[in-house]
Amino acid sequence: MILESILAGVIATSPIDRVAHIPTAWQPFAQCVSARESRHSYRARNRSSSAQGRWQFLDNAWRVNGGIEWIVSRQLKKAGVSWKGRITWVRRLDATPIYRWPAWAQDAAFVGVVTERPSGWKHWYLSGSRCNGLVPKKTQPKEN
Amino acid sequence: MQVQAIGREFPDGTISVGNPPRKYESRAHFLDDYADDANLDEFELAFDEVILPDSGRLFQVLVDA
After folding, report:
1. What ipTM describes this predicted complex?
2. Do A100 and A36 contact (CB within 8 A), yes or no?
3. Which of the two residues, A3 and A122, has the higher pLDDT score?
4. Cα–Cα distances in Å, from A16 out to A79, A86, A107?
5. How many CB atoms lie within 10 A of CB A128?
6. Whole-angstrom distance, CA of residue A102 vs CA of residue A31
7. How far does the CA of residue A25 sit from the closest CA of chain B (Å)?
8. Cβ of A90 and B51 within 8 Å?
């Protein structure tokens, strides 16, 4: 009965749900950063910069001048979303300020940034923050 | 994934991709036309993390190996 419930949950999970899922190892860091940066608000906007959304991505650097929507696209691809579906979302996200992105897209961008490159988490490095110590060990450089 | 082409998005919003370069007047035009122009079924972009204020931003066009 329990196994059937688990399998039903897995089968019912949509690609959108899967890309928004924060890997277990990253959840302590994610919770800490989310609380620190936006108090978990997907609609948060910084008054003195273009930092926006739950993760306070700098909209000017990551979207306007960058390609954060392609990070989301790669997460969608991993979840099995077709090219047609992905390019539709790339266009939509490219034209929309990050604070107005759906929650799943903001979370997918965060997951992509911290998992695509070992140093990705350093975008949220803040001297003295306890969040730094919550980065999964295998992504941290060895100490000399 | 492998690199299919190198592109540059200039500060004025225009995009140049590949060698010889294909040029697009905006990111929207690029998204609409590049797959057909380059005869690709699909592609991904990966942007360099460094923005050069005068010469725009480099990116790679990635395709499945």
Report:
1. 0.80
2. no
3. A122
4. 8, 11, 10
5. 6
6. 18
7. 25
8. no
